[in-house]
Amino acid sequence: MAVTTTELLQLLEQNLSGISSKFMTEGLGILALDEGKYVPNCEGEVPTRVEQYVLEERGISGSALLAHFGGPPYGYPA
Q: What is the C-alpha to C-alpha distance for residues 39 and 42, in angstroms, rounded to an integer?
């Protein structure tokens, strides 16, 4: 799922509103709505894969995460 620069910048806003559905539970699964507010939700497929890999490696650097997940078969571009 391709995420645009504009969509990424939405995550840096002080007050989250009108967030792209790509970040929601049915998309990447990093945000959910709770009583009308956006809250972190790390139960989606992507964050779960990242967590599993970090645990398997017993810790890992950010650059190693990008190297692992930034290409095939994942292709989550940085």
A: 10
